[in-house]
Amino acid sequence: MGQKFYQKASVQVVMVTGIVAIVIAAGQIWFAHSNVKVENRKLNRDIQILRDDLAKSNGEVQRLETLLTPFRTIALERYAGPEGEALRKLASKIAEIESQIETTKRLAEPAVLILDGVDIKPVTEGFEAIVKFRPSKNQPVPKITITAQLPVASQARILELKQVPPAGGTLAVFNVRKGINPDGKAAMWQCNPSGIGPAWFSLTVSQPTKALIELDCGPKPFEIDIQTQNKSVQATP
After folding, report:
1. HSE (CB half, 13 Å, CA atoms) of 41?
2. What is the dihedral sign for C-alpha 82, 83, 86, 91?
3. What values do phi and psi take at 156, rounded to 5?
4. Which phi and psi (to 5°) does residue 159 adopt?
5. What is the largest CA-CA distance in the chain?
6. Is 135:186 a contact under the CB 8 Å cutoff?
7. What is the number of other CB atoms lying within 10 angstroms of the CB of residue 211?
8. CA dist., res. 131 & res. 133, Å (int)
9. 8 Å CB contact between 156 and 224
10. Is the CB of residue 159 less than 8 Å from the CB of residue 209?
11. Residue range 108-114: mean pLDDT, rounded
12. With helix as H, strand as E and coil as C, how does 180-191 read?
């Protein structure tokens, strides 16, 4: 009786073990199948993306071909030889014309002032910065407006902003307007030059400070650090 019971139990254990093994194997197969399905979806998605990119590329090629058609026609009419050589000659001619247009535009632009340096020295009242500009071409600048601003937190004050004669020359001006804010943090000088030549301006402050210089007919606003023997100029974007 007992032996039969143990035999029956052994058979049941074997059956359960087999069933568990089958379940585990089925789970692994299902998991692997699921992974394959996921990878297939990713692959199909990548293939679709590649097809879309190819369609866009083909469309861009077609658009460029359409744009190139009139140039191809002009090149073949004007230049002998194979199509590629004719197109290269036409491209070279177009580049030459563009260069001539740019040169003409530069010549037609009004003269502006270019920063030529800054000299700083101590004076009785404090410090003086000589800001030097030169014209971009041999033409008069119609109007000059220069402004100087000090940081609000600075203890320095602007004592004077004026035009000074450049070394070895003069620049006559008229319609001069000038002024300094009551707090001494900003100053302006405006004039109309009557000739061609360098334009120098003197900015005197009570003590070392930074100053933002802006010119309506010159470079972008730039900052100068007014200290003893300090000639640094920092461009401000």
Report:
1. 5
2. negative
3. -75, 160
4. -95, -30
5. 133
6. no
7. 26
8. 7
9. no
10. no
11. 80
12. ECCCCCEEEEEE
Cβ atoms 122, 178 nearer than 8 A: no
The residue type found at 130 is I
**At what angle are helices 2-78 and 83-108 packed, to 10 degrees?**
70
Q: Which of 9-13, 34-38, 132-136 has the lowest mean pLDDT?
A: 9-13
In the prediction, which pLDDT does 18 show? 58
Amino acid, single-letter form, for residue 223:
E
**For residues 222 and 231, what is the distance between their CA atoms, to the nearest angstrom?**
13
In whole angstroms, give the CA distance from residue 214 to residue 15: 94
Phi and psi based region of residue 168 (left: phi greater than 0; alpha: psi -120 to 50; beta: remaining): left
Q: How many CA atoms are closer than 13 Å to the CA of 74, on its beta-carbon side? A: 12
- The more confidently predicted of residues 86 and 18 is 86
CB 129 within 8 A of CB 119: yes
In percent, the amount of the chain with pLDDT more than 90 equals 31
**Phi/psi of residue 86, each to 5°?**
-65, -40
